[in-house]
Amino acid sequence: MSRVRARIEGTVQGVGFRPYVYRLAGELGVAGHVLNDSRGVVVEVEAPSETVERFLSRLALEAPPLASVERVTSEHVEELGEHGFVIRESPAGGEARAAVTPDSATCSDCLAELFDPADRRFRYPFTNCTNCGPRFTIVQDVPYDRRNTTMAAFEMCPACLSEYRDPANRRFHAQPNACPDCGPQARLVCAGGAAVEDAGARDALEATAHALLEGAIVAVKGVGGFHLACRADDDAAVAELRARKHREDKPFALMGPSLGAVRELVDLKPDELRLLLERARPIVLAQRRPDGVVAPSVAPGASELGVMLPYSPLHHVLLADAGTTLVMTSGNVSDEPIAFRAEDACERLADIADLFLMHDRPIQTRTDDSVVRHAGGRRTFLRRSRGYVPSALPLPVGCGRHMLACGAELKNTFAVAKGGHAWVGHHVGDLKNYETLRSFVAGIDHFQRLFAVEPEVVAHDLHPEYLSTKHALDRDDVRLVGVQHHHAHLAACLAEHGEVRPAVGAIFDGTGHGADGTVWGGELLFGDLEGFERAGLLFPVRMPGGEAAIRQPWRMACAWLAAAFEEWRCPPRQLAQQVEQRTWEQVSRLAVSGLSSPLTTSAGRLFDAIAALCGLRSEVNYEGQAAVELEAACDIDEQRAYELPLLDDGGPLVMDARAMVRDVVEDLEAGVEVGRIAARFHNALAETTARACAVAADRCRTDLVALSGGVFQNRRLLGQTASLLADGGLRVLTPRQLPPNDGGIAYGQLAVAAARLAAEQRGTDARA
Ligand SMILES: [Zn+2]
Ligand SMILES: [Zn+2]
Ligand SMILES: [Zn+2]
User: Fold this and answer.
1) 605-631: average pLDDT
2) Which bound ligand lies closest to the C-alpha atom of 124?
3) Which of 161, 686, 687, 722 could lock 156 by a disulfide, CB 3.0 to 4.6 Å apart?
């Protein structure tokens, strides 16, 4: 006989790991126990030595579908002569280190019950089991047990309790287990809170479906927050939702009742289908079908639609009842974070929603839908949140200190780390108002508790006005590490690929605080996790009027014309309708004098300028809108590229776009189609970027090139640049686990901070 104590680390709580161990123990006839503690799962087994060996060898191999075993360590302990195998209570206290898992879409077993009229959970919107259901959004503390979730207040009925206690049952120790008799309930109410009666409806969900079919806008409480829903084919409803939400033209996401319904709206390639069916059930951006029936107001001017499938029982029943595709957009007023608390939602969404589909299972952490797209042969994140957070990402360099990174300002995420692990938080949003700041601070507190991180090191952006930077500087007794914005982009890309060698990074985005105090955004960096130097840049121009130029791309057109020509006194023909002569002259003077107009190398602003020159968009309603529309306008067959010279005087390379702007103007005056101009611009930027990377890589003796920053969400630019680089024999890295936009900054900041501290430590050790 022998007795072994094994510790299993990784994603092993809330995924049916203990029941699985229990069944395995039963099958092999070993005695002992299993329990969750704050670091994961501990199992002790006692049996003849070869049986114990067999048990240990199968333990990680046959783990349940949602589990991810990172490490199993075992030791021999004294035999106790025990009989039988039990699941023990989690001990209280101890250092919390167990991984909390992401929320997971309803499994096929639960779905079958949901639509079986004979099942006791028929149409029950909170059905779940150990293989599916809410996790991160309901966890309040570790270890992951019911008392530490927002299900704590619901006492299980005898039927649920017997499932929960039966090791042979799919719901054995399923912490959110519930049924219509004992669990959360949904109800349909008006803005004032009064229940809505619909005599013809079976329940709140059917009443909601009726209201939606009749054109109502309904706030629907889901897994990570509220959605605002309405019929996707009813333009009056969608346009009304737009008007009430104060969202001019940013596309709305759609939820289809079935795969077939989704296929009627978008062309789904096999890879996109795979993304759509991932356990996380993200929003997938896919090419819209010209014949797809969707209200024009859903996504005006967009070539893609964001589509998803139902991911919770509530959504499954609601969509089945409605039988039609619904708009499911974040339940917020423009720019504010998504609402997730019942009272808060009723108050904030009162002017938007006609009705509220509420439920009484509290949401602990608001978590937006994730947004992905298939690009460059793989999944690319545009937003990593529900269904993926809080899975850990490795850090290639550990530093032995607990760390926090505060991220950037737009599309903010924060991240915490210890050991070699980083946990990147859910999408917080644009840190520009009190609501988002509060959610940022609460998120950090929650992650510190969940992962038992007490930050000794806090990494932050160099921009002094970012609220995230201010939060870092306000912390007492911590070591601060300031990380240049574009270096963080580069480091994030290198770190997620486990790369510690130096690389050339082409980092193109909207704006970031440069090391020289100017506004960077079209950068070639040469660097590793620890440090960088500037290897190249886009020709700098003025941002006339500063921030105003971000909302008004025509200002950037004005600045580029001022740079490309000696002077440009009146708005070009394409902008004559939008901008008055006098305003143009004033802004033109700012662009020449530089008054209140910082220099910028931003690639995002160059896209803005070209889009404005082409008459596509003179003002934007959301960040990146002009660039998205310029990409959508491209004539895919156009092969020509504008001249975009590379200036090389031995210092940083300069991608001089002035000649290109002159060519664009010439083409416009000659009446060349905008689609061709847009394509020639993309082709030119890709070619010059690839050429500049190759020169810089050669100069710096590396074969590694990273492409990141929000501008590389542009598929045409990314695809062309990457293939030109690969043709030139260079190895190209692009973000896979995190978005290329500022949602990846916090992780990059952690990677830089860890590398710098590790280097410091090596220095100290060397001197000692
Ligand atoms: Zn299930
Ligand atoms: Zn029950
Ligand atoms: Zn950025």
Assistant:
1) 94
2) 2
3) 161
